[in-house]
Predict the structure.
Amino acid sequence: MPRDRVPIEHGRNVEEVRRIKHARSIGGSEASSSGCYSLSQSAMVSWITAFSTEYHTKTGRYPIVYSTRDWWSTCTGDSATPGQHDPLWIANYGRSPTPLPAGWTTYTIWRNADSGTLPGDQDVFNGTTAGLKTFAHGTYTPPPPPPGSGWPVVSQGATGHSTTTIQYLLNARGSALAVDGDFGPATRSAVLAFQSGHGLTADGIVGPDTWQALVS
């Protein structure tokens, strides 16, 4: 069964973030020369590495790096050094967190939209609720991203955190489901109603298109 993911309410679940981005905005414009803070690629890598090392010395853990793939490629020259130990918060406003910046084989948090069902930016933790608690208190090793779309396909009969997430998101959209992690007939009916109301194929299966609509 595909692994679980946990939606993150912005500003509540994760506090320690080192944002590597340009002027408070995310997008293709970050990859411009001005987005690299007038640093060369080697100087940028040195600065990030020095910050990460100092942070680890003082706190005992590495900072999370927030970046788009384009920014990382342009401003660090696809350096693989920080990815050896710094967790990744990938910003990719699409159906999948991949492709990832050089140096990372997986990600810890995926920002997939700047607004949606939850307040503020829309972020998804790569793991379970227990994994999120582990990450909040120390070192966490996220699972690798799946091939294809990046979203699990969930249908009637499924149980677990993926179903719980779906139920929470449906309730935020007006449903009144019991959040019990059991994808039963009531959850399927709510999925069908949501799909019909959003111009999606009404099959009762939560795949990439339905996930994207739920979190947008």
Summary: Residues 41-59 form the longest helix (19 residues). The helical segments are 41-59, 69-76, 129-137, 161-172, 185-197, 208-215. The first strand starts at residue 6 and ends at 8.
